[in-house]
Structure prediction request, 360 residues.
Amino acid sequence: MALTYDPIATTTLGSANSTITFSSIPGTFTDLRLVIVANQTGSNDLPVIRFNGDTGNNYSHTHIGGNGSAGFSGRSSNASGIRFMSNTPFLTGSRPNLTIVDIFSYSATSVFKSVLANANNNDGGSGSIWRSVGLWRNTAAITSVTLNVGIETMTAGSTATLYGILRA
Amino acid sequence: MPLTGLVTGARGYGMFGASGPSGAYDSIASVVVGTGQTSVTFSNIPQTYVALQIRILAANTFTAGVGIAMRFNGIGSGYTEHSIQGDGSSATAQGSTGASNIFCGFTANATSTFGASIIDIYDYASTTRNKTVRSIGAWDENGSGQIRSFSSLFNNTSAVTSIVIGTGDNINWLHRTLTAGSTFSLYGIRSA
Prediction:
């Protein structure tokens, strides 16, 4: 019998890579939670999450954040992925970014998919906090999730763990 | 663990037991909203956890951005809220005191689109502490949206035994209809 909060898979990068993908996700849970602890090599691209390999302009998001001196808000529409964290600062060494992404009703086939992201980074002298809501305009059940940092890479040792959450 | 006190459109699992073995994070109850509902009630909440979490995927039949609010133990006073909000162009801060509800999330309105909210209620079973609530609620409809992070207080040391949650904010209460299929799920978190 499935647990209420169950780890599905963990990926730890053995070498730098721009993507992490979870595939063949079982459809037996209600929500998914992705916990990411990662460093990036630079800040010249926008980290996004994509579903089922869809690279079309079927995503959007709205975010709020703070960088230690100002609050900010923005959004994207008809985008090729859901922004799930700020692209700055890029963190090195032993100061990883911590991001939690919640994906609601991922296996439902009657709704577009809603996502909440909570990203946090602090490099000692700089940092940011980021909260966003994202939408994938597709009613298909999610069977794969891909994190993509574009032209940058996540460093070796970066980890992502996918959990399933099952409601009563 | 047996479920107790599910109301209004609740659906159980087997003998209304939790969905899996008991652990640090238990599913207590879940409600899928039917047609014409403005709220969901969780009652007779077990007092055996250290915290509660409510996960919501909800829409309303009126317009995007209608809020989600809740009351504890049927009490309509003594709530305080502070929050930060982003609307896609600017970040703002808000607050209220002496409110009749806890404003804690958002609903969406577009076809097939639902807002998402996560609400954490700490020390809900304490009879010596007032109740602190952390929540985040948001909606995005591809060109419009809001995201808001809330910190709230129920200025009452009574243990929380029931929660009514539905459309509302710190002024309005159950003023709009939830879209059928909206889901409200209650979880309990144990300490060691």
User: Anything to note?
Assistant: Chain B touches chain A through 53 residues (CB under 8 Å).
